[in-house]
Amino acid sequence: MWLPAVLAFLVSSPFLELVQSTSVPAHASNYSTWMALSIISRNQGVLASSSDISAILQAGITQKAFTRLVKQYPHANSTEAIAQYIKRSVDSVAGPVSNATKDLTYAMDRLSSGNGLIDLYKETGNDTYRTAFTGLRNSINLNSRNVEDGLWYFVYPNWSYLDGMYSLVPFYAYYTILFDARNASAIADMMRQLDLLWTHCAAANGTGLLVHGYDDSKTAVWADPVTGASPHVWGRSLGWYTMALVDTLEILPRQTHPSEWALLHARFCQLADALRRAVDATSGAWWQLLDQPGRAGNYIESSGSAMFAYALLKGVRLGYLENGVPAYTDVATRAYKYITDTFVVDNSTDGTLGYNGTVSVCSLNSTASYEYYVGQPINYNSVLGSGAFVLASLDRCIVLYRP
Ligand SMILES: *[C@@H]1O[C@H](CO)[C@@H](O)[C@H](O)[C@H]1NC(C)=O
Ligand SMILES: *[C@@H]1O[C@H](CO)[C@@H](O)[C@H](O)[C@H]1NC(C)=O
Ligand SMILES: *[C@@H]1O[C@H](CO)[C@@H](O)[C@H](O)[C@H]1NC(C)=O
Ligand SMILES: *[C@@H]1O[C@H](CO)[C@@H](O)[C@H](O)[C@H]1NC(C)=O
Ligand SMILES: *[C@@H]1O[C@H](CO)[C@@H](O)[C@H](O)[C@H]1NC(C)=O
Ligand SMILES: *[C@@H]1O[C@H](CO)[C@@H](O)[C@H](O)[C@H]1NC(C)=O
Ligand SMILES: *[C@@H]1O[C@H](CO)[C@@H](O)[C@H](O)[C@H]1NC(C)=O
Ligand SMILES: *[C@@H]1O[C@H](CO)[C@@H](O)[C@H](O)[C@H]1NC(C)=O
Ligand SMILES: *[C@@H]1O[C@H](CO)[C@@H](O)[C@H](O)[C@H]1NC(C)=O
Ligand SMILES: *[C@@H]1O[C@H](CO)[C@@H](O)[C@H](O)[C@H]1NC(C)=O
């Protein structure tokens, strides 16, 4: 009863007042609550139906960003509305994902709601959530694999993508720690997925960046004959992988898994260094295709840029990037400023914030050519971008106001 009232309130004219009174956006550094309430007012991150496959990843990133927000500002007066919205998003996913066999009709993105389901189960003890995340966990065992045990991202035989790691790895780690702690092969399998992508997708020329994915059978039109790698470093896919590393470092206890933690940490540091070197010197943010800076048609993309800013800021906050803190803070805060100046749109009509410049889906079920990646449509208000922006904003605020 209360929830619809809150939502009606959010989309009505007092929304502007709520935003002004709760998120203190007068100082433009605190955009997280404002953007979250705007996402809610657009009704994003909630599955409209069980066939709404493309919304599954949108739900997952919305839940993860909002969960962080509620943790960071537990006493803000928008927190209750945001917490209720997390529940609404998780509830929309719980039914559709509960059957492990049927889960295979979704891409690996289905797993992005796993942590939200576990959190609500811990909070309420409601078995609907347990059934759903158990279904997701069992679907990993049923998922097709290549001969090296690499999980297929979706129905395409033997293809694995960086994208899937954000959905798989933090869930795999969280589930195993909480419910299957003695299952060493689960952690080994999780590490193997990251490792196969790290090995196959390493850009050939020592930039330290990773290309979008690989075909283990090397038969795709785009596949490198030796590694199976696709040709380009796509910002958002590398963003998903980088966020998977930094989020899993937080979830996986260093004490119980020292060698795994050390390897994830070393790789996160290597990627952070590669990202620092790949940042565009003029704007301070990152290209749609990081391996083709300045080439005609290429552009600075807003979802990948927000993901990298978030990962670097969080890496600094949690002490993972202890070597070179000032440099990483500078890179990330400069990127964040470019994002807010360029992509964040203050809609003075209804008081919401918009988010521009996010590329729509880029699939390897394509030529995977330069022209393909730079020719995909650019969306306004894609929650894949605005959700990452909420995450970046939360860490930006901490770094900025750290005593
Ligand atoms: C939020 O809290 C502030 C004071 O902390 C109050 O002035 C304001 O009215 C509250 N806003 C809403 C929408 O409850
Ligand atoms: C940012 O917004 C939150 C939620 O309204 C608030 O609790 C917090 O104090 C704000 N932080 C800053 C630095 O303004
Ligand atoms: C799960 O889905 C599969 C495939 O769609 C179906 O055959 C099976 O009956 C479902 N199981 C349950 C318990 O609904
Ligand atoms: C458990 O959660 C589901 C989904 O929100 C809800 O439909 C159901 O009524 C809840 N069950 C109980 C016992 O609260
Ligand atoms: C342990 O994890 C592995 C790898 O995911 C899985 O195949 C196996 O079923 C799990 N064992 C148990 C008892 O859940
Ligand atoms: C680096 O490698 C990527 C992908 O393997 C390629 O697209 C790019 O052109 C290379 N850059 C340079 C400077 O050689
Ligand atoms: C997957 O790769 C293996 C080994 O490269 C190959 O034998 C198999 O035919 C491929 N699977 C499909 C469905 O193409
Ligand atoms: C601003 O808000 C109005 C009213 O909700 C909406 O019609 C319009 O599309 C929004 N414009 C932008 C640029 O977001
Ligand atoms: C989004 O960006 C495009 C390209 O720069 C621009 O044409 C469009 O007006 C922008 N949309 C909004 C709502 O600012
Ligand atoms: C892959 O691309 C082909 C050609 O565009 C299309 O017909 C097919 O539906 C795509 N497959 C999936 C699963 O989207």
TrEMBL record:
Q: Name one Pfam family in it.
A: Glyco_hydro_88
Keywords (A to Z) from UniProt: Glycosidase, Hydrolase, Signal
Gene3D superfamilies from the UniProt entry = 1.50.10.10
State whether keyword tRNA-binding applies.
no
Q: Which domain of life is it from?
A: Eukaryota
Give TM regions: none
Designated name of the protein: Six-hairpin glycosidase-like protein
